Automatic annotation (TrEMBL), chains A, B:
It is found in: Cytoplasm. Belongs to the PRA-CH family. In the N-terminal section; belongs to the PRA-CH family. It comes from the Bacteria. Zn(2+) binds at C86, C107, C114. Mg(2+) binds at D85, D87, D89. The chain holds residues 148 to 286 of 286 of the full protein. This is Phosphoribosyl-AMP cyclohydrolase. It comes from Inhella inkyongensis. Catalyzes the hydrolysis of the adenine ring of phosphoribosyl-AMP. Homodimer. Coiled coil: none annotated.
């Protein structure tokens, strides 16, 4: 049959509670430091690619395509563990953040983590240093 | 004027990139262990209450009301730090998970963390122990 020519998708993808857009949020947490680096979105293909490659692949909502993290910057994320929460609607990756002389730069602003705005009661202060010039990341 | 009788909302709430439903995902990360405990949702009121109380308050999408985490179970989360990511659409809380003899049970299943399903290539295996009988949590 024609159906047999379709690539088989593993049944564990069906266990995920994809939202009405077919997406779930995915957290990247750094192995070792256990810092939360970033949150992005995944669809079925992104999660399958992440597992197959052993590197984080997200779904870019703005570009509406798969986004192999680090494809431009070299800041790929090697995936060591993949978790799903009790409601099965959030993914947690344990990753090793590669790139730029071991600085572990996950954020497009050149910072280690994307969570660099800290609430101090008056506003959100940027409290993490810029480790790499962003213009050097996307050249 | 009548406008002056409205409760003033701090301007830092406007800096958050609320989605089309007026929500953002919020990650609760345990201080010390740095374990990611859970992800829930916040609207403006939930984030404001979280800051005002110093305890995590989420927006329950299923019950469509504010959800003061631990209000039934006693498993409140004392909030030590509030972060916002580069895109300003995800909140990260650093919390101390209270309740049940210091077990730090965040999950309604009686586990430490909600992220207890681990992908092993065949499926999602439950790899974290149940520390507290769920029936003891919501009695």
């Amino acid at each position: 049959t024609h159906a047999s020519r379709l690539p088989a998708q593993p049944t564990w993808l069906d266990a995920v509670a994809w939202d009405e857009r077919g997406l779930v949020p995915a957290i990247a947490q750094e192995a070792g430091s256990k810092d939360v680096l970033m949150v992005a979105w995944m669809n079925r293909e992104a999660l399958l690619e992440t597992w197959a490659r052993g590197q984080a692949v997200y779904w870019s909502r703005s570009r509406q395509r798969l986004w192999h993290k680090g494809e431009e910057s070299g800041h790929v994320q090697t995936v060591l563990d993949v978790r799903l929460d009790c409601d099965r609607d959030v993914v947690l990756l344990t990753v090793r953040q590669e790139g730029h002389e071991g600085h572990g730069v996950a954020c497009h602003t050149g910072r280690h983590s994307c969570f660099f705005h800290q609430l101090d009661g008056e506003g959100w202060a940027a409290v993490e240093p810029v480790l790499v010039d962003p213009e050097r990341i996307y050249r």
